[in-house]
Design a protein that fits this description.
CATH architecture of the largest domain: 3-Layer(aba) Sandwich
Radius of gyration: 18 Å
Enzyme class: transferase
Catalytic activity: S-adenosyl 3-(methylsulfanyl)propylamine + putrescine = S-methyl-5'-thioadenosine + spermidine + H(+)
Number of domains: 2
CATH class of the largest domain: Alpha Beta
Function: Catalyzes the irreversible transfer of a propylamine group from the amino donor S-adenosylmethioninamine (decarboxy-AdoMet) to putrescine (1,4-diaminobutane) to yield spermidine.
Organism: Ammonifex degensii (strain DSM 10501 / KC4)
Order of helices and strands: EEEEEEHEHEHHEHEHEHEEHH
Strand order of the largest sheet: 9-8-7-10-11-13-12
Keywords: Polyamine biosynthesis, Spermidine biosynthesis, Transferase
Largest sheet: 7 strands, mixed
Shape: globular
Length: about 280
């Protein structure tokens, strides 16, 4: 008998893939956690019934959440990651040559432990000497560290459960306060196809807090609709002014100098969503 994983992406849409093995299942103090082995995507991390990342396509997400902001700031020496317990964002941050130190704040230590065990391709950066791991609430953490960070990355799950507060205006104001006077941050901001109202709300809130706000795109086949958004908010530096020669030649799989600029070229329907925000 075949085993299939099915994610209810909304009331009218489901995503399914065949599962060859269930590697891990548990209920943590915060969420339901599972790791599945699939023939299409390799190992898959699932939280509360929603795919968070897969070994097959994770680089499309993690390179874009990390390197676009790290290459926008000319001196991203001190970085804060909120969420990202699988380790993929941390892996990209610590290999950037200008990053001197990074702090990763994850509320659920079981996500880190399980990722270390089953997702070594992603979690390898968690042991880098540049990185400090902290198990606590990211919303509370930013309020205790004013003016401390050059770059902050919000690598959160969908806005449900413990992650819901990571999409609110009050949290973004705390992030702004935790940044240095020329700091910037990026948050993953969901699907332009299925979360247009949320994207518009985030964009509107950030425009009232930061002088520069830019939305950019990547493509993650295992996320609803495939098209995925990030929103960058900056106190000083504009990602559209980055020069190709300033981007370090790391061994990227998705990101490069051309993608950096092209990611900000938005389809017309999304431009209209932002204009109405």
């Amino acid at each position: 008998m075949e085993l299939w994983y099915t994610e209810n992406q909304n009331d009218d849409l489901r995503f399914s893939c065949r599962v060859t093995r269930t590697l891990h299942v548990e209920k943590t103090p915060f969420q339901h956690l599972a790791v599945l082995e699939t023939p299409c995507f390799g190992r898959v991390l699932v939280l509360d019934g929603i795919v968070q990342t897969t070994v097959w396509d994770e680089f499309m997400y993690h390179e874009m959440i990390a390197h676009v902001p790290l290459n926008t700031h000319p001196r991203p020496e001190k970085v804060l990651i909120i969420g990202g317990g699988d380790g993929g964002t941390a892996r990209e941050v610590v290999r950037h040559p200008k990053v001197k130190s990074a702090v990763m704040v994850e509320i659920d230590e079981r996500v880190i432990a399980v990722s270390r065990q089953y997702l070594p391709e992603l979690s390898q950066g968690l042991d880098d000497p540049k990185l400090e791991l902290r198990i606590e609430d990211g919303i509370e953490y930013v309020t205790k560290h004013p003016g401390e960070y050059d770059v902050i990355l919000i690598d959160s799950p969908d806005p449900i459960g413990p992650a819901k507060g990571l999409f609110g205006r009050q949290f973004y104001e705390g992030v702004a306060a935790a940044l240095k006077e020329d700091g910037l941050f990026v948050a993953q901001t969901e699907s332009p196809l299925f979360n247009a109202d949320l994207i518009a709300e985030i964009y509107r809130n950030l425009r009232e807090i930061f002088p520069i706000v830019r939305l950019y795109l990547t493509y993650v086949p295992t996320y609803p609709g495939g098209m995925w958004s990030f929103t960058l908010a900056s106190k000083k530096y504009d990602p559209l002014e980055v020069k190709p020669e300033d981007i370090p030649p790391l061994s990227y799989r998705y990101y490069n100098a051309e993608i950096h600029r092209a990611a900000f070229a938005l389809p017309q329907f999304l431009q209209e969503i932002l204009r109405r925000a």
